[in-house]
Every structure is written in C-alpha cells, then in structure tokens.
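Hi! If you just cloned this repository, the fastest way to understand the data is to look at a raw example. We've pasted two of them here, unedited. The first protein comes first, obviously.
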Amino acid sequence: MACSIPGYAQPRHSFALGDSVFLLDNRPFQMICGEMHYARIPREAWRQRMKMAKAMGLNTIGTYVFWNIQEPEKGKFDFSGNNDIAAFVRTAQEESLWVVLRPSPYVCAEWEFGGYPYWLQNENGLVVRSKEQKYLNEYKQYLMALGKQLAPLQVNHGGNILMIQVENEYGSYGDNREYLEINRKIFQKAGFDGLLFTADQANDVARGFLPGSLPALNGIDNPQRIRQLVRRYNNGKGPYYVAEWYPAWFDWWGSPHHVVPPEKYTAQLDSMLSAGISVNMYMFHGGTTRGFMNGANYNDKSPYEPQISSYDYDAPLDEAGNATPKFMAFRSVIQKHLPPGQTLPDVPAAKPAISIDDIQFRETTGIFNILSSPKINQRLLTFEDLHQAYGFVLYRTKLNGGAKGKLAVMGLRDYALVFINGRRAGILDRRLGDSSINVEMPQGSVTLDILVENLGRINFGPYLLNNKKGITQKVLFNNQELENWQMFSLPLDDINAIKRSAAAKKYTEAPVLRRGNFNLVKTGDSYLDMSRWGKGVVWVNGYNLGRYWNVGPQQTIYVPGEWLKPGNNEIVVLELIKPQQAILRGIEKPSLSN
C-alpha cells in the first residue's frame, strides 16, 4: 500500500464484504490485526511499535478512540500530542499498515469510565448508551469533531482505515436495535461512509448486532462456530472477523499477574488463519495506562476491582515494545500463512534498557501545604460537583472532641486516608468493603480530614450510570451526620504548577510530594522499583507515569526512554502511606508480580 506523502494525493482503494472474505481492491484480503492504543504508547514510540507489528506479520492495527481524552471538558476538544489520533493513523499508513478504527463512544478497554468523559454525569438526566436526547446530543458533537479528524483517512478516501466500529459489545448491556440504528446514522453524518461493524461476545450477538453491518465476534476461536454465528446474523454470509481474540488478560490491584504461555494459543491462531478468518489480537501491545486513566470492574458478585497502570497484558509485545516468546511463536504461525515468496521483516533488536542509581529526594512538600481555596458547603460534594475529573479531593470539617466511637464514610469512592488533627487515624478501601473505623477524638476543637482518591470509574457492566467519585453520600460519627465541609480539589493534572513548601512537622503521617533529580549519560527504558514504597503516583520530566501500590501485583513503573534525556531529569513522587520513604532506583527489567 502507498505511503502517505505530504502534498500528494493518495490512491483510493475499495474495501468490501465478499460472501466469505473481505475484498480489498476486489481481491481477497485476510486481516491479521493487532490491537494497540495510541494513548497507551508515547507518541515518540508509535512508529517503533508499528515496525514491530510488521515484523510479527500483522497487516492491520486496531485501536479504540477515547472520548474522555479527546473531549476532556464539555466542548473543549484536544487532538494534540499523544491525543492526535489522526497522526497515529497516518503513521500506520506510512508503515504500510491498515487500520480498524473503534470510535464507539463506549470502549470498555479497562479505561476510565469505559472512555466516557466524567462530565457527562453532570448533565441532569443524561443516560449513556441510550436514546436519551442529552446523551445523543453530546455524542453527536463528539462524533462530528472526530469525523473531521478521521473521516478523510478512510480507505475509500485514500486513507488506510478499513472499517469503523459503531458500538462495542452492546449486546452485553442492552438490546435496543433502534439505538444501534441511531448510532449508525450519527457515524454516517459525521462522514464515516465506509464499512461499519459491531462486535459482541458469542452469547451476546443476538442483542448486539445491527442488520446491514457486519457482526464481528469477540472471545471466540473455533472456526466452525465463528462461521455459524456470523452467517446467522449476516444473511447467511461472511466474511468472518474476530474483533477481539484474547491471547492473555489484564491485571487489577491485589490480584495475581496474569500470564498465559504462548503454546496455549498457537494452535488456535493457526486454525483460524487456515480457515481464512480475519483476526484482531487483543492485545498485540498493551502499553501503559498512564495518569489516572485506568478503569475498574464491579458487579453484584465481585468487589470493586481497579486496574493497575501497567497494561502489559502478557501480550506478544511487552509494555516497553519488545518482542516476547509469544511474539516469536505467533510470528512463526503467521509466517506459515504468507503468500508464496513473501517473507517477514527481521525482528528489530530489543530497545536499550538502563538502570538509574539511587535517586535521592532533597525536597519534600506535605500535601496539606499545597491546598488551594476550598469549596464550602453544608453537605459533601462529589468530584463531579466540584467539576474535577480525576485525582484527589480533601474533605475537611471541624467538630467538638472528647468522644470516641465509629466514624462511617458512606458511599466512599474509592480510597480514603482519615486524619484527626493531622495524625492518620485509618485507611478505608472500597475494594475491601471498608466504610468505617473506630476513632477517638481528643478534647477541644478537632479538625477531621478525609483525603479521597478516585481509583478509576467502572468501565464495564450495569454500573456505568453509578460512577460518581469522592464521598457520594455522607459521613457519620456515632450515627450523627457531620456537616459544614470544606472541599479542596487536588487534580494534580499539572505537577509543575504545584507550589513548593516544606512538609509541616505536625503532619508527619500525611502524604508528601517528594522531588528529586537524576543525571543520565545515556537514555533508555527503565523501571522504577517501587517495592519498598506504599501507594502513590510518579511523574518524570512532567509526565504522569501512573500509580503504584504495595498490594501488587505491579512492583515497578515503566519509564519510557523517549521521555528521558541526557543530563538532568526530574522526578516527583506522591507517597500516600509511607511518607518517610525517600530512596528510589531504576532497574532494567519490570516486576509485575508480587
């Protein structure tokens, strides 16, 4: 396929559905696709990851588009830097890769709120994934903005986008065909006039398919069953596309790291390719869910399960973009199915990795010393009430002391440190069902502080509409509701803007921001060893690298070499529960298991 050359028109291609195969320029075409997400990979590394995809034998890349990074606040769109999805698609074209685009407003993807922007919850009466008009209005505005970026990059306009997904596993959520048809019309109005498809788990296709659009399948690898299902919901015809084939799985805090040996999946991949079925590996390369963008799972049978920052996924390409044994095994399978005379590119060498000598932190700022002006209200306000998407909120009130009893935080979302006159009294963790602690209030006026962390909004299941953060109900002390609150927003969205001041001695158990520097002669990927630390967030050179937590399984934080520089580099660590910790180092290999 032609590369994208600025200033020159690209040849238009045709892409169509045959009775059993895809047709690219009227010739049979089997997609061997791998999922990787632009937002989980440093922009500077997109091309390297795509070269690795080519080396494994992929001809197509699949990616979600995340509404909440493209429109982080209502009406304010951001397609710059790492959010430049059009640049990601064009880079794939330059690397001779096709793209399957998945811009359904709901993506799941172990991503905060399943990709929905937090501010939708501030629209009174709005119901996501429904025909409710406020939702449809916001959805249309977003899709129209996205269409301006991406519609010109469809294959029928000279681009490399082969297909566009109009909803994502809708059958696991609802069964309203009229809603799906509205989706399709919105996509078409936004300029997506190429092939549209839906994707559902095998048991949900009946509820999630849309007549006239290809019904793709997720989580299935039996060729006979794939053909049966697609034909049943596609007028007796193909082609056959598995939109999510899982060669591994993701992790959440407090669970074991998931590892699945490649030999468990090579036969399945071989059988699907032999049967002419097109496949998208979810994930080919997971990358990292940086910042505060991880999602969480929750249902009536399982506890709240926020996902870790590493999205390594035990994928063929590891978190740093290097080939794994799974990569080599799948490459061998794909090589068997190449046309006669075609060979795969050599596998690029592993990226350089470096260790970083002990980083000494010479500056410490207590979190109580960086508070801005509070919002004052009789009752508690959520993150959404405060127009805050992510990060932390400090709730403060004063009460008369001289009593002991139970302090109950009702509707905690999701993790709280409780302080009485600056001393830590306890920790509450939604994962564990914690909602109360026994405390003793000293004599006199008492300051009660509750620092709450948003650990990630639910991204899948029936509770998408029950996703507000902070303290969502009330706080009781000995069954009496506490009122008259100050609420301090701590979004920590620009670490360089945080004012610096010394840690106040009376807050010796309070969270701290530790700043340090390290010098490098050469750059490369590294992994910060957080195994002696407690819980928090790390920034390097202004980039939020994600969360760490001693409950595991993740024990390191990946530092992309692309974001390091020779000479001086700055690091900032927010440590919540071990403020005395002050030594850190970078190692050459990750530790994703306890």
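Ok, and the second one:
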Amino acid sequence: MPPTSARVPGPASASATASSSATAAVAAPGADGAGPPGRRPDPGDRPARSGGRTPRIAALASVVVLGSLMTVLDTTVVNVALNRLSTDFHAPLAAIQWVVTGYTLALAAVIPLTAWAIGRFGTKRLYLLAIGAFALGSALAGLAWNTESLIAFRVLQGLAGGAVSPVGMTILIRASDPAHRGRIMSILGIPVLVGPLIGPVLGGYLVDQVSWRWIFLINIPIGLLTLLLGARLFPRDTPQPTRRLDVPGLLTLSPGLALLIYGLSTGAERHAFTSPAALLPTLLGAVLVAAFVVRALTAAEPLLDLRLLRHRPFGTAVATLALFTGGYFGSMLLLPLYYQVVRGQSATGAGLLGIPQVLATGITMQFAGRLGDKVAPGRLVPTGVALAATGFLTFTTQVAADTPYAVLMAALAVMGVGVGMTIMPTMAAATRRIDGDRIPAASTTLTIVPQLASSVGGALMSVLLAGAMADRLPGSLSGGLEAVHALPAAAVRPLAPQLADAFQHTYGWAVALVALAVLPALLLPRRR
C-alpha cells in the first residue's frame, strides 16, 4: 500500500505493506522457480504452464491472500483509530504516530532476513511461525495499557508481519511460471483492494461502537484460520542455508533509522533541534546509517546490496518508489485525522469516505499488473505518477472546513488510479533486467525501500502537521492535537478553518514529494 504498504493511505496506506512485500517473494532462494543450487526439488517448485493458474496455485494463493489480508487489515484499522488512541492515552500526534511508524520500521527490519530465514527454516515452517507470532502480537496489542506498551507490541507485530507476504509469495512464485510475474504480483493486490475497503469501516465501527482494542483482537481468528490452511496446503520443503546473515548490517540499518527519525521528530516537536533529547539520537542515528552504507558498499554479502543502484533501470525504480511512497503513504496517515478532527466525522464515517479512493487503487492495480507485462514502464509509470500528483494536488487545494465531500472523494479517486498505475508496474519492472543470481539482493532492496520511505514519510508529515497546528492555533492550544482533544466539540468547531489550513499546508509537502517521483520515472526503460 506503503505506504504498507503500508502503508498505508488513510486506508490505502496498507498497500505500502502489501505491495512492497510482493517483490520480496523473489528475494528468497529459489524464488524464480528453480530453487538454489543443490536443493532437492519440491513438488511445489514445478511451475505451472497455463498462464500461471492451476487448481494447486489457486489453493496456495487463497492462503497467501488470507495471510496478507490480516496484515493489511491491521494497518488500515489502526489508521482510523489514531485519533481515539491519542485521546484515550492523552498522547500528542508526534508520539502516537509511532504506533504506525514503529510497525513499519519493524516490517522493514525483518524483510532482509526473509531470504536467509527461508534457507534456514524452510518456507512452510517460517510462514506458520510468522502467522503465529503476528496473532500473538495482536493479542498483546489489544491488552496494551499505555502508549509505550502499544508501540512495543506493534513492533512485535511488525517483526512477524514483515515475513508473511514475502514468504507466502515465495511459495506461490515457486509453483508458478516466472514469465507471468505481473499476474503473480497482481494476486497480492487482492488484499490491497479488499483490506483497505473493509478495514477502515470495520475498524471505525469497532472504535466507535465497541473498543479500539478489538481492532487488534480481530486478527486472532484470522490468524488461526490461516495457520490451519497453511499447515494443510503448503508443500513441505527442506531447509537449505545458502548464505550468511549480515549481522552488522542488521544492527545498524533499522536502529539507525529509528534513532534518526526519533531525533528529528523530537526536535521538530519541541522546536529545538540542538537540545540533547533531539541532537543525541539524531547524531547517533546518522552515524549508524552511514556505517550501514559503508558496509553495504564493501561487504561481500551485505544486508542490502546498494551497488545494484548503479544499474540504471533498478536505480531509477528505487528512486521512483522512495519519493512516491514517502509522499503518498506518509501523507495518507493524516487523512482519517482530517475527517475526524476538522470535519467532525466519526471513525466509521472516516472509513466510509475513503472507499472511492481504495476502490480506484485496488481495481487499477489489478489491471496495471497485467498491463506492466505488455507496456514499457517508462511509458506507464510516469503517466501513473502524473495522474496521482494531479489528483493529490486537486484534493490538497480543496482541503477546507466545509468542502463538499463529493469533491474530495473525486480527487482522491483520481489519485487512487495513479497510485494503482505506479507501484506494481515499477516494482515488477525493476527486476526484469537483473541477472538471475542477483534477483534475491535486488528484490530485497526493492521491497525494503517503500517500507522505509513510508516510515520516514509518516513521521515527517506528523511532525509537519504538529508544527503547522501550533503555528495557527491560539497559544493556549500550542499542544496541538492533544490540546484540541481536551476541548469540547462546541469549542473545536470555530477552530476548523485554522485546523484545515494546517492540514492543507502539510499536504502541500506531500504533493511535492509525489510530483518529484516523475523525474526518475521518466528514466525507466521505454521499451519492453
């Protein structure tokens, strides 16, 4: 989605998780259908020859879609609950957004481990372990007692959820024809369509009528059903370790990014970047990220092979995804907040208002995955980016306290079509000209970038919104969202124009990031 992903898209942010995880499927050994050298062939590895569709693949795909749907639902329902979580825990937006950012950073941390873990444990065993751990994390999140405990349990969910789609898609790709990779990618688009469609509405209902805790507890029965089907349908495979794990790279990338985002967020929130609470984590995070880059450029088997960025089609695809998902998925975190804080909608109402955008994205994604097999990405992707930026800009200029909802939803639907034309074709095209033995490293890098970009984008937009609100509200409300929540509804309504202006200002930055993505997109291959 991204930005799941997440991600994330009021509701559409979930595709940051699901869509970016799709390409991770080929990161695992043997994901191209052949398996690693020396591995005994498994019946599930035999490719299908009828367009990649057989009854066996349909059965495997049903489990993959169900598992991915669980992680997508978890992202979309949380987005509409942020306003209630901020109220119940008396937490500012800069703090409560870590419920989403911590989750996506954890997703990004575990994705590079997937290829190694598949070789170490096997696909079936690893998939069932990931589903079980995700269900456990969901149960704990539903029992959280404060912001800190909820963030911690969300990180546990992310560590488990990051392996669900890549491992499941590895099983699916091994059993399918590699020539139809665009169609295989579109299969994972099903949760991106269904999850964001029902997730915000279901989450809104649970938040409004039951309890926010049930947005996490609902994952438990889905997880148990997925475990049962996976244990029965997935083929057995023999673990065959193929490479060493880059532990130094693992211990520098995700912690470095987390510290860097935390430091910058703290500095922006307090308007004091030089204070020890902001400066120290920022510097430490920058040092760790720099150490990771050096490691990635020099190690024989790095966690992420950044040397692949020298390959023009791959490098331009990564740049396109980074800018696009950072601006789009990061900003969509704020959409339910706009509807609830400025327009006075309930969580359920905010979810319903996102349906046109979700439908446009999901339906277009189904066609774009197949179209990407026929049309050069240098022609398809720039069109998608331009369309998304146009719809996003139209929406941003109309953000106000009393804009007709039909206008906002129409603009977001146009943006959704552009999103559907951009993400999947870019990811599918990036690995087509990569040598077979470099596909695992390439797809891992391509998968983690949208997750990291959506994490950074979400934190950035939350901080920008908090600052914009502080600048536009009276001094007594300098606490931003937390201070607004403390007011009665009658006192909030007169502040709606100022609040809407703060959202519009923040969205302007996001539009700029999305529009910039057209520059690297124009450098993608213009021939099939």
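That's it. A detail worth noticing about the second one: The chain has 24 helices and no strands.
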